[in-house]
Amino acid sequence: MSSKHTTVTTHIPVKVKKKLSIQPKIKAAVYGTIVPLGLVIAWEYLSKTGVFPQHLLPAPTTILDTIAGMFQDGTLWGHLGITLYRLIFGFLIGVAAAVLLGAAAGYFKTVESLIDPLIQAFRSIPSLAWVPLFILWMGIGESSKIVLIAVGVFFPVYLNIVSGIQGVDRKLIEVGKVYNFNSWQLIRKIILPASLPSFLVGIRSGLGLGWMFVVAAELMGASKGIGYLLVYGQNSYSPELIISSIVLFAILGKLSDSLLKRLEVKTLHWQDTFTKKA
Prior knowledge:
It is found in: Cell membrane. It comes from Bacillus methanolicus (strain MGA3 / ATCC 53907). Pfam families: BPD_transp_1. This is Binding-protein-dependent transporter inner membrane component. This protein has two domains: 30-48 and 59-73; 82-268, MetI-like fold, CATH 1.10.3720. The longest helix has 35 residues, at 183-217. Helices cover 74% and strands 0% of the residues. The chain contains ten helices and no strands. It has 278 residues and is an all-alpha fold.
C-alpha cells in the first residue's frame, strides 16, 4: 500500500515599501531656490526693521511693486523688447563671426598664426573703451549698440571653438584616415562632434557677456531699454528703479542661460559623463 503526500505551498504577500523618488530636475530646482529665497527673506526682514535704509536699499516687496507698476502701465514691455532685440541681433552676429574665424584658426595653423595674436590683443580691451569709437563711426543709433554687443559675444565663442578643435584627440583623426575619410568627412564625423561640447560652453559664456555688454550699449544715448532704466534711476535718485532693473537683468539672464543649458543637454545626449546615472 502506497501513500501519496501532497505538499501545499502558501505564498504570503509581502508589502514592499516604495521609496518616494523625486526627479533630479525637480530636486535641483528646489535646491536652487533655497539660497536665493533665504537671502530675499533676510533682505526683507533687515529692510523692514531699518537695518538697511529704505532710501538706499528698498525692500524686495518695494522692488516687486515697482516692476508690477511698470508691467501694469505697459512701459515694461517696451524696455524689455528693445533690450532683447539688441541682444539677439548682437548675439547672432558675434556667434557667426566667431564660428567662421574660430573654425579657420582652429583647423588651419597658418590662419591661427595670422589672426590669433591680433584677436588676443583686442580681447584685453575693456568694453567701455569701444563706446566712443563706435559712436564716432556709427552714431548713437541701434547699429553701434548691436556691434558693441557682438564684440562682447565674439571672444568667448572664438576661444572655445579654437580650443575645442585643437583639443580633438589625434587618435580619432588617425582612425578617420584609416577609414579613408576626406577632409569634409573628418570635420563632419570627428572634429565637429568632438569639439561640440567646448563650442556650446562658449555659446553660454558669450551670451552671459552679451548681457553685460547690453548695459554698456544702452549707455550710448539710449532712450529705451533696461540699461536706460538704470541710468534714469541714477539720475532721478530712484534706488527701487535701479534694483528693479538689476533684478530684470538677472531673471532674463538666468532664463536665457537655462534655455541654452537645455539645448546643450539635448545636443550632447550621447555623452557618457559621471553626472549621468547608468
